[in-house]
Known about the structure:
With 331 residues, the chain is α/β, with parallel strands linked by helices. The protein has three domains: 72 residues, Arc Repressor Mutant, subunit A (Orthogonal Bundle), CATH 1.10.10; 95 residues, Arc Repressor Mutant, subunit A; 137 residues, no CATH class. It is built from eleven helices and twelve strands. It has a five-stranded mixed beta sheet with strand order 6-7-8-10-12, with helices on both faces. A three-stranded antiparallel beta sheet has the order 3-5-4. Strands 1-2 form a two-stranded antiparallel sheet. Helix 2 crosses helix 3, helix 4 crosses helix 5 and helix 5 crosses helix 10. The termini are far apart.
Amino acid sequence: MAVIEYRDKILSLLKLKIALLPAQVATELRIDSMIASAMLSEMSERGLVKVSRIKIGSSPLYYDPSRPEVLEQYIHTLKQVEREALQFLKNSRIVRDGSLSPVARVAFQGLKDYAVPLDVTIGNTKEVFWKWYLIPDDSAEKIIVEIVQGKKETEEQTIKRPEEPIKEQRQEAIIPAKKKPGRKPKIKNPETQQKIVEEKILQTKNAEDLPKTPKKTETPQQTSQHTDNSQFSTTLKKYFAKENIKIIESNTIKEGKEYDLTIQIQTPIGIMRFYCKAKEKKKINDADLSVAYVEGQSRKMPVLYATTGTLDKGLEEQLEKKFKGLLFKTL
């Protein structure tokens, strides 16, 4: 088949379908799937088609660059936390990275088909904003200016009238009225909502001290998957045995260094299952905790981060605020 001929046929297929997978092209053109992949890759390099970061199974998705809106029809293939984060971005149009929950921030970083990062310089400071992918750049620029100017005006008004009573502020509408005491604010971003049970755990236990089971003294059984005898694995098992924590499921990410576990812990409100990220690392940073936090959200479980290392400087103070429901333990 001539080069121009196959390009025309693939472009014709794109007009009939929402998007294409290499297997679909192979079937339609009656060629090998590897050849179809090579054809699509070549067309992508020329800008005739665009490849999405979305994968159906293990296959990349190709679409017409002039019809980016078709990608919305594949949002249902994403995880729930990703779908919720994208819905928030679509409704907001532009959001400030610094205002995002760890769940949304990690989701956006992996979904750049829909969430477009914009580097913005404000004075001497650089900030990142996220744009819904269908918003034109000129519209995004106007919205960002409004967000930045709105923040400055609010700060100036607060400085001018620091001693005025709340009633006067409401009457003159200089500063947005404060919410009535006793009424909890509505949370619009579903990613920031945490399970009630996680809050109860945080109220009763410090993140450095996991609850023990007073009645049970037997050593919990380990799953057959977690059998390596590395120093870190041994340390982890001893800690679990001491605290009567049972491993329900174990997945080795890097032998002797990192594991994803489902564990069972006796808490003041009963037996609960946790997602545990166990990692041998000297310093744990914001990104490490964010990944574990998002995984816990996707599993609908509270999180225990068990490590031989310590938190980066300043991160400990932010732990409860940014990663509510996450317990951190240095072994």
